[in-house]
């Protein structure tokens, strides 16, 4: 477990953050300049907090009051940067072994063959970094960090320099790392798509502070965080499981707390845990179920709250079997429906509005982060 409680002033910017991150992937998400890289640099030992403590699994890396400040190489923290930072004059094999060779033999606990197999880099071992693709270089950089047997892996936008195809190639590798090597990961990202696909816990960073922390579904479904996530509209993120698919109609059925949701076909096996994002402007509300309609999803729900988004639009929070949904309707619709908390309604969602990019594999781990 990573315990952070730090303060640092750099120029006009003050960072003050306290939180605890457990197993799995904790995503640090926030606007440019909000302090994400500064924080991971402090954990890595590359920047010094003015005060506070950083502790991993009970081992104190930094404690200003006690005068503890371990150098980076003694922290047992792996760091994967945006750029791979491989040594150009060394082969892939030599690069992989670089950090590992510095460890006492007893601490070389991560198997070379296992890392090479998981990352699929066996065919690259004899080559030099200059001949590798961007995605291959990043896989080698991740392998090098893992082989140094870190207690925590820091990843600062490791996919930022890659194009869409390479990102998709690497995401599944990263998604599996935390589980396969039982290492907690602190992952800095600008991309909500990455957060949905990788993170167990979301740490929203705003102006040097932790604005929210919790399971991804919870944090993203809260209207208070919409501006911070930069999504532009309210939306819910549901935890669901793929029930089955019907290729004839291009439809998959997802089971979630509120029932069954039909979405665009997902090319995954039945039983796959997924996350699905549903935008508020894609949900209509009926007072009653409606017959003779092309809309495939009609979900029984209870109105929890009704709040003005602006002068003309209204956000309605719905409870659907314990899952939260958001619907944005016009002020005119609200004037007619007069929705109020406690009211039973039907949420209508077109299957086609839930695009492939809105459904991501759900990391199948328990969330391990607690507010600090
Ligand atoms: N060495 C420094 N001296 C003074 N100010 C700094 C220094 N390093 C960073 N800053 C400032 O601290 C703030 C946080 O920077 P940081 O790089 O941590 O943000 P970030 O969230 O990682 O941004 P991005 O997503 O763009 O990488 C910014 O305002 C930045 O200008």
Automatic annotation (TrEMBL):
Top-level taxon in the UniProt lineage: Bacteria
Annotated ranges, domain Mop: 292-358
Occurrences of domain ABC transporter (ranges): 1-232
Keyword annotations from UniProtKB, A to Z: ATP-binding, Cell inner membrane, Cell membrane, Membrane, Molybdenum, Nucleotide-binding, Translocase, Transport
A molecular function GO annotation: ATP binding
PANTHER family: ABC TRANSPORTER I FAMILY MEMBER 10 (PTHR43514:SF4)
Protein name: Molybdenum ABC transporter ATP-binding protein
Protein source organism: Phaeospirillum tilakii
Lineage: Bacteria, Pseudomonadati, Pseudomonadota, Alphaproteobacteria, Rhodospirillales
